[in-house]
Amino acid sequence: MSLATIYxxxxxxxxxxxxxxxxxxxxxxxxxxIVGLPEAAVKESKDRVRAALLNSGFEFPSRRITVNxxxxxxxxxxxxxxxxxxxxxxxxxxxxxxxxxxxNEFIGELSLSGNLRAVNGxxxxxxxxxxxxxxxxxxFENGSEALLAKQTTVFATKNLLELCAHLSAQEFITPFTxxxxxxxxxxxxxxxxxxxxxxxxxxxxxAAAGSHNMLMVGSPGSGKTMLASRLPSILPELTxxxxxxxxxxxxxxxxxxxxxxxxxxxxVHRTIPHLLSHLLGVAQxxxxxxYL
Length: 292
Known about the structure:
Blueprint: E1 2-9, E2 18-26, E3 31-35, H1 40-43, H2 45-55, E4 64-70, H3 82-92, E5 104-106, E6 109-110, E7 116-117, H4 122-131, E8 135-139, H5 143-146, E9 154-157, H6 160-167, H7 198-210, H8 224-230, H9 240-252, H10 272-280
Parallel strand pairs: 3-4, 5-8, 8-9
Antiparallel strand pairs: 1-2, 2-4, 6-7
Helix pairs in contact: 2-3
């Protein structure tokens, strides 16, 4: 009987609880079963892991393989556990030394060729791994995001073969140091551009100064969206802690990851014409006709 233990992180809201991936190889009919409250995408990882190992030149053990994702009462979802499961199988089958596994945490989805694909929620996982004094190994596309967790040692790799060479001390991967090139540009609209609307602007200033909520009510075209889009221009810059917290929200969402020390704004549109008018920068919905 062979047993290997790998550390990873789940995603629960803005938290990244620790998940211990235990892989056991025993005698019996060949097969791979995953237990520990996995959802459909996690159950399907056995096919991705098998193909990734074989296409990377490793042997897939012809034994009974049991993968336990502990704690068992924590829901597991997504393809983030592909990498730790694959490494657990390699370690349990003695194809990979497990000396360096205990000091690292692993997150990543595997393609059938053995390449690593980016996943959501890497930033909170990187923050949590630093608290446990462990390094984190992530797909290359997630390297800049994980690096936002200050003082966390981040290793970003492109494929399973490259990572195994690093863990086997054959060819080391240098810690990721690339700075994040944010694709977020702070809103350039300024409240000083608004003519009139003195009472509304005064209300925005009071709300910004006292961190109050605001509810704007009025007929279409009265200037609600115009004023709301300029509110970030009078808000203070985010602190480092606030910026990381805001970036964590983007990290766990399914949209593109964005990070800035400026204020984030999200616009909600009731109809497709309203959305198009915002994206195209058209002041009047009627002017959309020239774009159609």
